[in-house]
Amino acid sequence: MTLDASTAAALEQRLAVEQSTHRLPSVVAGIVRSGALVWSGAAGTTDARVDGPVPTADTQYRIGSISKTFVAVEVMRLRDAGLLDLADTIGAHLPEVPFGHVTIAQLLTHTSGMQAETNGDWWERTEGGDWASLLASGIGLRFTPGTAFHYSNVGYGVLGELVSRLRGVPWQDAVRTGILEPLGMSRTTTRPQAPSAPGLAVHPLADLVHVEPEHDAVSMAPAGQLWSTVQDLSRWAAFLGGRTGDVLAPETLTEMLHPVAVNDVPGTPWVGAHALGWQMWNVAGRRLAGHGGSMPGFLANLRIDLTSGDGVVLMANATSGLGTAAADLLTLFREREPDAPTPWHADSAQADTLDLVGPWFWGTYAFTLALEADGGLRLGEPGQGRGARFRREGDGWIGLEGYYRGEPLAVERDASGRPLRLVLASFVFTRTPYAPDADVPGGLDSSGWH
């Protein structure tokens, strides 16, 4: 698409305000729509000097914990290849760990109870050690697995070793050949490659900067090692928006984007959660997915609006100070460039299931069944009570959300082919409340309605 000049100017102005107000040496960003980078911008200079290098969409920044999303996708690729199950305990694949009862799903969702950081020196600013040394340091659990959300960088170090063990190559090689190369992300690497921005800390009380160290985190690298560019990270945003190519099955991505663990802070309403490797946000009723990232000298953010598919990527070379620019840029873009709605068209294929629509009753609860544009069914209002949507699977349907997520729905017909009952997770729905011509579990009062 061709971006309106006034929209581009507004986005550039917002980015410039972020750089100036929050005293960031440099900040770069991009907007993604329909799988393409439709705008990119930059503000500041990479070394914080007035006449320093101006970054571009091809300048590398360290993306910190966004690295975890690549590890998570590779774990799901292993699952789809039949090499593991999410319910497997980590001990089944890494028998040497003392927390072998933790499951792979719990590690992905930060519900394993694993400690947040390493034992010993601050791992983000010191040279890393190998897997054996990480294990020997005494890493372990802080909480009972499955009982709480507790963000764990160490947990992703463990998942990186899992990938390495099952692929037979270092985790970064598995990610490069299985994900980065197929998606054309040639500028996403484990160490900086020119042109790249140096990691800087800005003095909180003076206009001075301090260079942060850069190193190989080795066994902790899966938690935050990768470097990337606006161009490359926009491809990852497009992937998250559904353009998975041959890297991941679409239904697996959908599975990854189901919120599992609420990031709960007592006394405040929750707006964020974690799914299988991805962060989730609920913003005024709109669901977004992505991940943030921070390492000494760098801040990053990637998020996609799951309804529209629009996304934003943003990176800065500062240890702290980033405000709300990522969310603001996406909102500004959506308001100025509203996405064209999908044109409505008649669908003759729905005639085959038209006899299902209309009223159905679960006991005395009334529901309306309607056909969806994608060939599925909508029972009641999704998100309200036990309303839900269903996708076709074989001769029946499977629930997509809420109480009936994953539960089967079957249609039973009489001798003439007329829909007589809906059987949903053992519950029976009939055309009228406790219809006498339907076999209602428990039978009917001989007096009928009286």
UniProtKB/TrEMBL annotation:
This is Beta-lactamase family protein. Residues 16-327 form the Beta-lactamase-related domain. It comes from Aeromicrobium wangtongii. It holds the Pfam family DUF7586. Residues 350-431 form the DUF7586 domain. InterPro entries: AmpC-like (IPR050491), Beta-lactam-related (IPR001466), Beta-lactam/transpept-like (IPR012338), DUF7586 (IPR056008).
